[in-house]
Automatic annotation (TrEMBL):
Residues 3-236 form the PD-(D/E)XK endonuclease-like domain. The keyword DNA-binding applies. It comes from Clostridium sporogenes. It holds the Pfam family AAA_24. InterPro entries: PDDEXK-like_dom_sf (IPR011604), PDDEXK_AddAB-type (IPR038726). This is NTP-binding protein.
Length: 567
């Protein structure tokens, strides 16, 4: 078995991590953090081996969306990589990314420099400020040992440390000032070359560690401060396994009678009582109207109290966050969570953010910053709740607006009582958004998608509206998903024997002749009366008809085609 420096270091740092990565071979989805150590380190390596353009393309390709934080990292690369390339211009490079591949060891040497006396120097790039830590690393000692076995004469070992600037943007600092300060920090930094004296004992320790990996019987966890940098942290410490990549298999689609839902209507239509027909439901109520519902409820509201002469206050938003944290523990038997009302919760989030920023309105925090912080705080918490696996239900009141069309006409639009940007995101977190309404004292649920009514979903309902009743709603859901195609191994296995029961065979010439005669007879049954011929217009030239095969009776007369040359 081949061993590498990183593999052995992984075992020494945490045997359980070694087991997950190298024995269980569990893969995780890379984090989208702008300063992801692995992605940033590989970006520096790409820049050193190729150029700045290739490095930036590699960095950007690892992210779904680029934000200001990613641009900040790009600014660092745009300064540091040219500095590194400038340093490499003055040396005689023998090889970059050189692969050591022996029976027992595998490793990649970042940089090999050729000397005039035939010897070489070995260097490794480190995008880090932890110089003392790497100076004790056995990595370069191991490289020298195995390179000399391949015939190299290694004279010098060393690390090339690229400074890692980790300053953060201050609250009172806008982006322009922060990036200006970032450039100042970059200009004040320097790339350092640190020589490492060869120590054969480091190689012996490495070999001993290889033996330890083969003799271990129990891979114990080793919790340290470094766990926050480990890709298996969520799986190891919190036992969350959804971050692991799934098997490449089709998931079976099933009829969903418990979709994530957003229902809105005018006051006193019966939104909450309709949702209350669900079992195992927890209401997170914001308006205090709970008399007509029987499900358990948590009031989301501000709390004010006095301690002596000092007034204390706890924001409603803080109670909501605490509730989400409690739901994350899964120490309950609820299956559904309903936020009633979702727009009130947004207002609670606004007030909490105002207090946090020390402002009275979003615009007081700077251009766009206040609005963005409120929406980010709110939607992040909503998505956090959504990811817990409960059926999520939102309740809202409706608001009626008039839209002026280009021709001067007016269109009445009906929407949930929350701003459009937040509404569009919330609609994307549920499977169905519907409106309830009253007509002639009867209550209905509108399933039809209308241009002037906010709503829609992932279901193809067969009816336009239904009574506001849970049984009718579930019936409509089942009918809308009738004939849903499912993918499963069992279905495929059942179909395969049927294919084998009907083997195909080649027709004989006699059978082929019979089939052709039969086709000709079917064609001959078509008569001229069944063909709609275009009527001739005196001002237009008749188009040439497509040829029609002869019938059993008379032959069709051919029309003469006028030649354009005669005109």
């Amino acid at each position: 078995m081949q061993y590498s420096h990183s593999r052995v270091e992984s075992f020494k740092g945490c045997p359980y991590k070694y087991k997950l990565r190298y024995i269980d071979k569990l893969k995780t989805i890379p984090t989208q953090d702008a300063n992801n150590a692995l992605i940033c380190g590989n970006t520096i390596h790409t820049g050193a081996e190729k150029n700045l353009k290739a490095a930036l393309e590699f960095y950007k390709s690892n992210y779904y969306v680029l934000t200001d934080l990613h641009i900040n990292e790009i600014i660092k690369f745009e300064y540091l990589i040219p500095k590194l390339k400038e340093l490499l211009l003055d040396i005689n490079i023998y090889s970059q990314e050189y692969l050591i591949n022996t029976k027992r060891f595998k490793g990649i040497v970042d940089l090999i420099v050729k000397n005039d006396d035939g010897t070489v120097d070995v260097f490794d790039f480190k995008y880090s400020n932890a110089i003392e830590h790497y100076m004790e690393s056995p990595q370069l000692h191991i490289y020298k040992y195995f390179m000399e076995q391949k015939g190299f004469k290694v004279r010098k070992l060393g690390f090339i440390f690229i400074p890692k600037i980790s300053i953060r943007q201050k609250k009172e600092e806008d982006l322009y000032k922060f990036r200006k300060r970032l450039l100042q920090e970059l200009k004040a930094s320097e790339i350092q070359i640190a020589e490492v004296l060869y120590n054969p004992n480091k190689v012996i320790e490495f070999m001993d560690s290889i033996i330890d990996t083969t003799e271990v019987k129990e891979y114990k966890k080793n919790p340290t401060n470094l766990c926050s940098w480990c890709e298996y942290e969520e799986y190891c410490l919190k036992e969350i396994d959804y971050m692991l990549l799934p098997k490449n298999e089709r998931r079976e689609r099933k009829i969903d009678t418990n979709p994530d839902l957003w229902i809105y209507a005018d006051s006193y239509v019966g939104k909450s009582t309709f949702i209350d027909q669900y079992d195992d439901l927890l209401f997170l109520n914001t308006d205090g109207n709970t008399d007509n519902t029987t499900s358990p409820v948590i009031r989301i509201m501000d709390k004010v109290w006095w301690e002596g002469r000092i007034q204390k206050k706890k924001f409603a938003w803080e109670f909501f966050i605490e509730t989400v944290e409690e739901l994350e523990k899964k120490d309950n038997d609820f299956k559904r969570i309903c936020i009633d009302l979702v727009e009130d919760l947004y207002e609670h989030c606004r007030l909490y953010t105002y207090d946090k920023l020390g402002v009275e309105h979003e615009q007081d925090a700077g251009f766009g910053k206040g609005w963005d912080m409120v929406r980010t705080e709110y939607l992040s918490a909503i998505k956090r709740l959504k990811n817990l696996g409960y059926q999520i239900i939102y309740i809202s009141k409706e608001v009626v607006k008039e839209i002026n069309l280009k021709n001067g006409a007016k269109l009445t639009a009906i929407n949930p009582n929350i701003n459009d940007k937040v509404a569009n995101v919330l609609a994307g977190t549920v499977d169905l958004t519907v409106r309830a309404f009253v007509k002639d004292e009867d209550r209905f649920l509108q399933l039809e998608k209308k241009e002037n009514v906010f709503g829609g979903g992932r279901f193809n309902f067969k009816v336009k509206k239904i009574p506001l009743d849970m049984k009718e709603f579930i019936k409509a859901l089942e009918e809308a998903q009738e004939g849903v195609k499912t993918y499963s191994k069992m279905a495929e296995e059942e179909q395969e024997p049927n294919k084998e029961e009907k083997p195909t065979r080649r027709r004989s010439k006699k059978e082929e002749t019979k089939v052709e005669d039969k086709k000709k007879e079917e064609v001959k049954e078509t008569t001229l009366e069944e063909v709609n011929e275009p009527k001739e217009e005196p001002t237009e030239e008749p188009k040439e008809d497509k040829p029609i095969e002869e019938t059993k009776g008379e032959k069709p007369k051919r029309r003469r085609r006028r030649k354009a040359d005669e005109e």
